[in-house]
């Protein structure tokens, strides 16, 4: 029933770009042109017209999609090469010196950074390169704290002593016995005297401007206790690849994987308060530290720049093989379950199958309540029957009511269906007449006025339930005090994705990410299969506490057809609540089948323009700066691609 503009087309307009408005306009003009020239005597034009007609069929869409995938593979390789050159240019110290040297003296806050590096038997070459990346920092106020964990290669300690003798900012401690990485990291921490701690591995590299960028951030946001940056990977050839452009602080992302990664900077007093690294979490000791740190502070900053190169080699977790350090995944699971216990949150962390480094949280429902499932509809009895039957037959959570909103239906089979469900399920099923012209926001608010539940579940009439625990899982997140709207993975009948979260700025307003990707794919850094915070989720299936719905005054009725769900989510976000995408709940979505395709007549197009302009007028700052979408990523694709034009 309801749709966001970005989710309005399934295949043709979303193959390569979510800028659907421009695509629609251009396509309309092109088809009109073809119709004018496509006369019987013009066989070439007729062939073009026939191809367009074929491309708009399901087989045609599949063909175009396959061709597009091949083009995208070629584009990916070009983007990878372009990224490698781009980051090399930006890590060229001769370029950086001219850009940054003159700015350092103007900074009023100039702390000392203690760069903590646990060392154990790395490649001597890699170790030297790591140390040199610190020495060549443009910001000079640092100390390098190196602790060797009794490396068997005697050359390691010789290299450490060599550098310590050359630069008095380099401190070294040599452990007499091997204690593994947590104990060794704590030994390095004991050397630290700076105001901020920087965590670094013994074979990775800092970019030359790394510390300067952190100092600049600290001068802007001195309250931040914990700061992280973007990162990439570097192979043995020195080729930079796999940049991880991260969101701003996203607590649910953090519970599904250590998305902060590298490089991490913390105030020393916070590290001291935490007691450093805990023994028994080796391999994920940094993840454990971050989970504990984020329980003590919400002053968390993010620098959307690549400031750290993570070395790829056969013994690194960054290596393609997931078996490089299997104990790290065991330790991460332990750290997550500990975090749940500390937070008094009943639940359990589990591995995500075939997703190394990915975890899911199964929360217990501790605040059960009645769920009001609100479904707006007009006619389409067969479609609605499928939705209702799947809810009633499959739902394991039994404390719910179904509120059907009849928006001017006139088909006899619809009224027969309502009579049947009223007779057979009158204890949970109620139908109310909404006799006003279609206005999705007004329908949702009307449904709220009839709801008697503690939770509202806004559901399209073209949804089909797949598994029985869907309400239980959604409620397990919606019950949390910090959670706003809870969205799920919506699938087309062919098991490709219709919705897996919404990103602002795509297509000029907002778009669904990973549309048309098969559900078996992981997506960018496991986004498809992982719990994520997004600025918005789709209104086709949203659960929210009724109290929160009321707190933000429900839906904005000036947004009659589009963007109203995103507007609702942004109101929650602006109040400090985190909207969340739950990938383990999957529903089939037949894509607003009851209202058909939009923009095919003048009236619909004009309404779209009205909604579009109202939405942009309210939320332009979020549209231009989605906190959960990195500014280095493209707003012209929906799969988290690097913006090649920024390179």
TrEMBL record:
Output the Gene Ontology terms for molecular function. glycosyltransferase activity
Task: Name the domain of life this protein comes from.
Answer: Bacteria
SUPFAM superfamilies (UniProt xref): Nucleotide-diphospho-sugar transferases
Under InterPro entries, the record lists: Glyco_trans_2-like, Nucleotide-diphossugar_trans
Ranges for domain Glycosyltransferase 2-like? 114-246, 372-495
Identify the keywords attached in UniProt to this record, alphabetized: Transferase
The name under which this protein is listed is Glycosyl transferase family 2
Native organism: Flavipsychrobacter stenotrophus
